[in-house]
Amino acid sequence: MANECCFEHELEYKSLIFNGGTMNDADETSPDTIPLGSANSSLRILGWLLPRGDTDEYSLTFNVPKDAYDKAGKAKVLVHLLTDNSNTPTGNRFAIRLSSLFARANGVVNISNLKTINKFNIQIQKSPGNFKYNHYVIEFELKDIIRAEDFALLSIARIASANDYAGALFLSSIEFIYLSC
Asked: Which of 18, 63, 127, 147 is at 20 to 30 A from 105, Cα to Cα?
């Protein structure tokens, strides 16, 4: 259970970072890779491609660490995305949704507790060239009150946007940031 003896001045932010290999998609069994520098490069980035029109959820589950302390709903999620739009001129915006679900230790995991946050109108920036990627960090503030040892589910989905970017987004990682003592 959460450490109740923490004082406000002793709290610090910590994070858990999940790469594409720790996420799943209901329709695919393994993540994608994209080359860095050229099409035949042996340097690859692991993640998930989210093409326009994709309705899949890209999810991960974990347990909130024992040092977590959050009675004020101050946890955050950072979603890291990449784009290479050097050859895809149509559309200059995208939108994504974060869904989160937390269940107490020895509690019930219940879909009715799922919360969603949409981020719209995220502007695409022109890539400097093929196999050179723009990096986007999209921040979501969770209003969930989390506790140590909670079961956690985080899920990302691409949603329709005005002037929707025609290319794929590349989900490279998700970072869960929490208060710790």
From this structure: 18
The secondary structure of 72-93 as a DSSP string is: S---EEEEEEEE--TT--S--E
Cα 159 to Cα 52: distance, rounded to the nearest angstrom: 8
- pLDDT tens per residue across span 105-160: 999 999 999 999 999 999 998 887 788 899 999 999 998 788 999 999 999 999 99
Chain centroid to CA 175: how far? 7
96 close to 159: Cβ distance less than 8 angstroms: yes
DSSP assigned state of 144: S
Using DSSP, how many helices (H) and how many strands (E) does the chain show?
0, 11
Record the tokens describing residue 61, joined without a space.
Answer: 């589950």
What is the reported pTM?
Answer: 0.91
Half-sphere exposure of 17 (CA within 13 A, CB side): 6
